[in-house]
Write a sequence for this structure.
């Protein structure tokens, strides 16, 4: 929703996905260089790297598309 | 590193804590940002009636995606198998489509601010008072259940103090709903909806990879539990043939018709979100969009429960047995699956998804309570003439009051062992008879004020009576649920069905011997007396009925695939 100059809800969602994606992907990349002693099941798939990356990209797209400064 | 430790399921890494804290900061920021846009009653209680179909539809679904959905149904699917998916498919989709296509025009055109408000217009003050008071009672109980469930998860999963969890989450919800009203609740519900999917979707994906796909999962579930656990309909021919102890008539008529239609079409918690739509077409589309997403929620709720049966090394039990044996209960299946697959960061997002689910459910209850209390109890019964600003202020105070009562309720709920069955019992007390009253009011011009009130009262009292009867005399189960083999959920389904039938019969009989309103007073309230704008000129892909047909086709296909 965006009316009367309010910031769109999709912009808030973009920020949320962007920040979460950055943190998750970053944590995954750190694990690649510092593998933990106790690993989760399917650790070798490095889910936090690609899942965090997906969230980061979607968040970035939403932030750009619904950036209130663009209007 | 996410590890299972002695006193808690997992230990969060610093990055997980940052993600959880960031979520709290963001929802509070949204509340403060929207503070200046909730100054009138229309703004505070109906979000200015300016929501698009997508926002209203996602919020409609998210308000329902609370603690019970995430934790309770994952637990139920571990306990009862794929039968739990009935609550998402036949127990939701037809009713949501019916709300959008048939009932929304009357709710929307009547310009009511609540479901009890519609009853006032259609049947008079007595029906509104009965409905409003029972709804307010049920709502704070539901909110308390949400709080308790969340605090329990935080205690079991993270080792957090149960009081700390209850107070932190409830204060956060109180702040953002009090500041921004329904608009703030809706904004946050859409955010929470996205986070729930982002945080929970990895579990079924990784779970299916580990299990080796759906066919391999079925084989493992058959080995660890029973072959019936992965069949939706084929085991419902007899009460004894399925883990839930229910017959297909209970699922189709009790759940699919009465309980489901009652909840999705008359529970103000969800209907309020659709009333905030910007126009009638958006109001009709919102439940259809909600239904489309609802069909896929089992992927993140039911499937993890089934995967738990297949891959978890330990056997989960009921709450009491888990406490006695220091093991894990059904309710822990989702956190256990989170801990199994999610490393640093992902675990924080998964925990955030759970918290978001709990908070969206809680905010939904509190904002609906605030509206019904202010308009249908305070304004109707206590202070009839006051300024709009006064009622907005009352709305803010009642939001905080609702949170406080919910906190008290959360401590009471701790005494109950089975959260889910408790809630189903509540639904059948209040919501099932209400559906009988509302549907007759909307579709039958002859229904009278005395008939509406009498039916609602008889349905509610008879439902509570049947519940008490079975509690005191367990042998009565064979009369209420048609079988002494029926389990709690089956009993709730049939009790809802009987109370609805009693409500309808009493309403019809009393209406036939009392005088109905003239047709001129039913305009905008009843089918046959209301002119609804034609959609003949609207392109096919913009018509709600077109998308309802698409959703119906997918719904039928899913039931056949998992038969």
């Amino acid at each position: 929703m965006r009316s009367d100059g309010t910031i769109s809800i999709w912009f808030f969602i973009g920020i949320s996905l962007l920040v979460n994606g950055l943190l998750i992907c970053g944590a995954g990349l750190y694990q690649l260089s510092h593998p933990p002693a106790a690993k989760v099941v399917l650790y070798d798939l490095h889910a936090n790297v690609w899942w965090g990356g997906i969230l980061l990209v979607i968040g970035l797209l939403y932030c750009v598309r619904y950036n209130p400064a663009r209007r | 590193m996410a590890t299972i430790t002695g006193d808690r399921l997992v230990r969060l890494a610093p990055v997980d804590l940052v993600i959880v804290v960031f979520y709290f900061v963001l929802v509070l920021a949204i509340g403060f940002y929207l503070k200046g846009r909730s100054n009138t009653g229309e703004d505070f209680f109906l979000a200015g009636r300016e929501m698009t179909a997508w926002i209203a539809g996602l919020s409609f679904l998210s308000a329902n995606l609370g603690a019970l959905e995430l934790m309770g149904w994952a637990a139920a699917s571990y306990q009862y198998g794929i039968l739990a998916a009935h609550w998402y498919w036949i127990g939701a989709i037809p009713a949501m489509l019916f709300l959008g296509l048939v009932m929304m025009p009357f709710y929307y055109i009547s310009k009511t601010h609540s479901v009890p408000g519609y009853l006032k217009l259609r049947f008079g003050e007595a029906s509104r008072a009965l409905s409003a008071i029972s709804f307010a009672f049920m709502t704070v109980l539901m909110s308390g259940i949400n709080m308790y469930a969340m605090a329990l998860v935080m205690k079991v999963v993270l080792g957090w103090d149960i009081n700390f969890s209850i107070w932190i989450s409830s204060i956060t919800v109180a702040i953002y709903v009090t500041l921004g009203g329904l608009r703030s609740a809706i904004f946050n519900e859409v955010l929470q909806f996205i986070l729930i999917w982002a945080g929970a979707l990895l579990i079924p994906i990784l779970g299916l990879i580990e299990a080796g796909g759906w066919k391999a999962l079925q084989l493992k579930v058959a080995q660890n539990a029973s072959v019936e656990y992965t069949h939706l309909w084929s085991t419902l021919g007899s009460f004894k043939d399925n883990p839930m102890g229910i017959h297909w008539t209970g699922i189709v008529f009790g759940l699919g018709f009465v309980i489901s239609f009652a909840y999705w079409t008359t529970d103000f918690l969800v209907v309020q979100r659709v009333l905030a739509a910007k126009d009638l077409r958006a109001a009709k589309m919102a439940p259809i969009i909600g239904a489309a997403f609802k069909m896929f929620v089992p992927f993140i709720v039911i499937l993890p429960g089934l995967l738990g049966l297949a891959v978890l090394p330990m056997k989960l039990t009921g709450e009491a047995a888990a406490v006695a044996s220091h093991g894990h209960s059904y309710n822990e299946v989702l956190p256990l699956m989170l801990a199994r697959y999610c490393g640093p960061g992902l675990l924080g997002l998964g925990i955030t998804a759970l918290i978001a689910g709990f908070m969206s459910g809680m905010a939904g209850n509190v904002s609906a309570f605030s509206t019904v209390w202010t308009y249908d109890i305070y304004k109707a019964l206590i202070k009839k003439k006051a300024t709009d600003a006064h009622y907005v202020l009352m709305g803010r105070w009642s939001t905080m009051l609702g949170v406080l009562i919910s906190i008290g309720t959360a401590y009471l709920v701790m005494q109950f062992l089975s959260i889910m069955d408790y809630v189903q019992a509540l639904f059948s007390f209040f919501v099932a008879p209400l559906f009988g009253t509302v549907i007759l009011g909307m579709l039958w011009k002859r229904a009278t004020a005395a008939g509406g009130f009498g039916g609602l009262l008889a349905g509610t009292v008879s439902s509570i009576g049947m519940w008490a009867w079975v509690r005191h005399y367990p042998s009565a189960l064979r009369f209420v649920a048609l079988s002494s083999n029926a389990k709690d959920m089956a009993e709730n389904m049939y009790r809802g069905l009987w109370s609805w039938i009693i409500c309808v019969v009493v309403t019809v009989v009393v209406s036939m011997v009392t005088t109905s309103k003239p047709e001129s007073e039913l305009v905008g309230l009843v089918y046959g007396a209301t002119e609804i704008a034609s959609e003949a000129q609207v392109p096919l892909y913009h018509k709600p009925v077109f998308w309802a047909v698409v959703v119906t086709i997918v719904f039928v296909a899913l039931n056949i695939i998992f038969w």
